[in-house]
Design a protein that fits this description.
Blueprint lengths: L7 E7 L4 E7 L20 H22 L7 H12 L8 H7 L2 H25 L10 H24 L8 H14 L4 H10 L6 H31 L3 H31 L9 H20 L4 H10 L7 H27 L11 H26 L4 H12 L3 H12 L5 H25 L23 E7 L4 H11 L8 E10 L7 E5 L11 H14 L5 E10 L4 H11 L4 E5 L2 E3 L5 E4 L1 H13 L3 E6 L17 E7 L3 H13 L5 E10 L2 H7 L2 H20 L6 E8 L2 H10 L6 E5 L22 H7 L7 E6 L28
Helix pairs in contact: 1-2, 1-4, 1-12, 2-12, 4-11, 4-12, 5-6, 5-8, 5-13, 6-13, 7-8, 8-9, 8-14, 10-11, 13-14, 13-16, 14-16, 15-16, 19-20
Pfam family, one: Na_H_Exchanger
Membrane topology: Multi-pass membrane protein
Protein name: Cation/H+ exchanger domain-containing protein
Length: about 800
């Protein structure tokens, strides 16, 4: 067997600041000549070592992330822990392991590629930042952001000047402490928004305040850091460096504001709707990001900072920002970025912390910074009358740190602005504090608490003299015709007006901050490119045809699907909605086959059903209700079947169906499905079930009494002994039915539904609804769930009524 060769050799030499390792790399040792039995050793060559390093780091960090999953820990913590395990604190202490997997030459290659991944990850983080948000920041967020920076910074600076009178230490330690104080006061916008998104509270009340407050905090930190840099250069008699630094900052701002940003806005405006960027445009943006990194490296600033600033110039969200994030994120963030933070852990020696007494001083200053930030955010939040629990959660959020802070720690250590001990303590304290805060936030903060009270809000329990308040959710333009026809079927009139609130739902993509806003569309209805404006145009046209008997308001929510229900429930609570309408996650083609299945929308529907402050209707559209059979005047009669088995949800469905009676283009058939031996059911059910049956009977009797003599209303009573009989009745609904309305839940022990759950695919539709939503049926379906009595929503913090000029009022029918 041939003797083992090595790809590089290393030795100690005098470096810029201290003794450093000099690596001599062999240029012909890149690709392996074969396995050990072929006379070669793959670990003697650069490429096999690099591939092995990436694989080991990825697998170990993912394993740790999986194990820490129940504790709600971040991927960054898992990557740092993986690096510490592989580094000189643990596995790196075994010489054979270190020399084989992480030789000096192999580490340089790994760090170079990792820095490339970090550059593009910071570029992506820059894309997520919306610089215009500062103009929308309210005074409470400004005050909280300022308090979260000023108090920890003030306490840290005081400690830096007081400690020398208590403990003797040199001037280098003093300078390190000041830098630690500055960076410890930072709450980074990308880090905080990423944390909020991980915990599914990005679009909650606490999430929105934290998003704006951390942006204010970050601006303060950059201003103070720039001032300290200038002052430091002046004190060191480096006036030319000061001028150089200021010229760089001004020139970079000019390029961003007057060249990069206008050009990117121009590109975004000229991307065809629904189309991606051209390949040439995509590659040009990538090259410019690398050139910005190259430019900042020339002036002594890390390349990632230049890429980050260029990313801010790119409009967030679709079409440009979302496309860039989707194309770049998987490789750079998923594969290369873990290597960067694993390298960070590799260079962290936990055993160096006991080397001298300065560790206690460093840790004291770091802890004071965290305590100052927590106290500043907590007190300022309470001053603006934030609930105590929410204020505590907000303080925990602002204390969390992540990738931006770690990047700055690395930069400070590489430039010898802080020593190894300070670097290790900053990393460890950050991991401990953030690691404690994340599970605490997950357990302490529940956004749905804001709509928990003792008021029921539903159609059945609403005052018939008041308007019916409907919140309709729209995911895409295909939902619009369906919902418009359902609104028409709701039969708005002067005696029974309706207030419609349209919530346009969009997935958060290519941006960091969630959006929930009320939209106002004025002027003539012209052709518009924006999806939101297309949707608004359709609903506005419908509202104009119902002037005087209907009001219309538009809202837009841009949020992750995992927490989109928070916005839906918040709007429903604020507008005091009686029912909210959700499109089903499956879309059918004209031939009856399933065209698309969107699991993310299904998750939204399931969360809303669980948390909703009002009744919910899931609308299953098979094309009939949105196609040729329209409810709008001038078309053929529209046939609605209301299936009633009994229970609160069916009573809510009947209350909604009762409002449709009297529409000139609707025929309504009430089908009451009853158990064959009703007396036996009374003997076998509990008292509360008997009471429910009595209420059902009274409601049916009331409905029949009110519709006597109405030719457009039919009543059928069907009997069944078991689920087989129920299925037979459901099959009979196929003839002459365009839309079926049914309650979601029924008596679980009823013989009419026993066994139907064995084949259930969509439990959110209930037993009957799930069967009616299969491909065996052709009609559309509305599944209604009533908000249980005694679990309604709070009326606090409701939206102000919109001025009449902002609403669309329409004339009597």
């Amino acid at each position: 067997m041939a003797p083992r060769r090595v790809s590089s050799v290393a030795g100690s030499v005098a470096g810029r600041y201290s003794q450093e390792v000099l690596v001599c790399q062999f240029t012909d040792m890149m690709n392996s000549r074969g396995l050990l039995w072929s006379g070669g050793d793959p670990f003697s060559f650069t490429l096999p070592v690099f591939l092995a390093q990436l694989a080991v780091i990825f697998l170990l960090s993912r394993t740790i992330y999986f194990l820490l999953g129940p504790l709600k820990q971040s991927m960054l913590s898992a990557q740092l822990i993986a690096g510490i395990i592989l580094g000189k604190s643990f596995m790196g202490r075994f010489k054979g392991f270190s020399e084989e997997l992480f030789p000096p030459g192999g580490r340089i290659t790994l760090e170079t590629v990792a820095d490339f991944g970090l550059l593009f990850h910071l570029f992506i983080l820059g894309i997520h930042v919306d610089p215009t948000m500062m103009r929308k920041t309210e005074k409470d967020a400004v005050a909280i952001g300022l308090a979260g920076f000023v108090l920890p910074f003030t306490i840290g600076i005081l400690a830096a000047f007081v400690l020398p009178h208590v403990i003797d230490y040199d001037g280098a330690l003093q300078e390190s402490i000041i830098r630690i104080v500055t960076i410890n006061s930072l709450s980074s916008f990308p880090v905080i928004t990423g944390l909020l998104a991980d915990l599914n509270i990005l679009n909650s009340d606490v999430g929105r305040i934290a998003t704006l407050a951390c942006m204010v905090n970050e601006y303060c930190n950059y201003v103070v850091y720039a001032l300290l840099t200038v002052m430091n250069s002046v004190l060191r008699n480096k006036q030319w460096y000061t001028i150089y630094y200021l010229l760089w900052a001004v020139s970079f701002f000019v390029l961003y504001r007057y060249v990069a940003r206008p050009w990117m806005l121009h590109v975004a405006r000229h991307v065809p709707e629904g189309k991606p960027l051209k390949e040439f445009q995509f590659l040009t943006i990538l090259i410019l990001a690398m050139m910005c990194g190259f430019f900042t490296e020339l002036i002594g600033v890390p390349a990632g900072i230049g890429a980050f600033v260029f990313g801010i110039a790119i409009p967030d969200g679709p079409p440009v920002g979302s496309y860039l994030v989707q194309r770049i994120d998987t490789i750079c963030t998923g594969l290369l970025l873990p290597a960067k933070f694993a390298v960070t852990g590799l260079n962290t020696d936990l055993f160096s912390l006991a080397a001298n007494g300065s560790a206690l001083i460093y840790e004291l200053v770091i802890i004071l910074g965290y305590l100052g930030k927590f106290t500043g955010v907590l007190l300022s939040s309470l001053y603006f009358q934030t609930p105590f629990r929410d204020a505590v959660c907000l303080a925990f959020v602002m204390c969390c740190k992540g990738i931006i802070e770690v990047t700055i720690y690395i930069m400070l250590k590489e430039d010898k602005m802080i020593d190894e001990e300070a670097y290790a303590l900053l990393l460890l304290t950050m991991m401990v504090v953030t690691g404690i805060a994340r599970p605490l936030l997950s357990s302490l903060y529940d956004p749905s608490r804001r709509y928990s009270s003792f008021q029921t809000n539903s159609i059945l329990y609403s005052n018939p003299k008041n308007d019916l308040r409907i919140l309709a959710c729209v995911h895409n333009e295909d939902n619009v015709p369906t919902i418009i026809n359902l609104l028409e079927a709701s039969n708005p009139s002067r005696n029974m007006p309706i207030s419609v609130f349209i919530l346009n739902l969009m997935e958060l993509s290519g941006r960091a901050a969630a959006v929930l806003e009320r939209n106002v569309y004025r002027g003539k209805l012209t052709s518009m490119r924006s999806r939101s404006e297309h949707i608004a145009k359709a609903f506005n046209y419908f509202a104009h045809k119902n002037e005087g008997i209907m009001t219309l308001q538009h809202f837009t929510s841009i949020a992750p699907y995992a927490s989109m229900h928070v916005d839906i429930c918040a709007i429903a609570s604020d507008i005091r909605a009686n029912i909210l309408i959700l499109p089903f996650h499956k879309v059918w083609e004209i031939d009856g086959t399933i065209g698309s299945n969107l699991p993310a929308i299904r998750t939204v529907n399931q969360n809303v059903i669980e948390k909703s402050p009002c009744s919910v209707g899931i609308l299953v559209d098979r094309g009939h209700i949105a196609g040729n059979l329209s409810i709008l005047p001038g078309n053929a009669m529209f046939h609605i079947t209301l299936l009633f088995l009994g229970g609160a949800d069916d009573r809510e469905a009947l209350a909604y169906g009762s409002r449709m009676v009297g529409h000139p283009h609707i025929n309504l058939t009430l089908v009451w499905l009853r158990l064959w031996d009703q007396k036996k059911s009374f003997d076998e059910t509990a008292l509360n079930n008997i009471e429910n049956i009595s209420i059902d009977n009274d409601m049916i009797s009331h409905f029949r009494a009110n519709t006597i003599g109405n030719a457009s209303v039919k009543y059928k009573e069907e009997m069944a002994k078991d689920a087989v009989g129920t299925t037979r009745v459901l099959r009979s609904l196929e003839d002459g039915c365009d839309l079926c309305i049914v309650g979601r839940q029924h008596e679980p022990d009823s013989p009419l539904t026993q066994g139907l759950t064995d084949w259930s695919e969509c439990p959110e539709l209930g037993d009957i609804g799930d069967m009616l939503a299969t491909s065996d049926f052709r009609f559309s379906l509305l599944v209604v769930q009533q908000r249980p009595p005694g679990t309604g929503f709070s009326n606090e913090n409701t939206l102000e009524p919109m001025p009449s000029s902002h609403s669309v009022f329409v004339s009597d029918r």
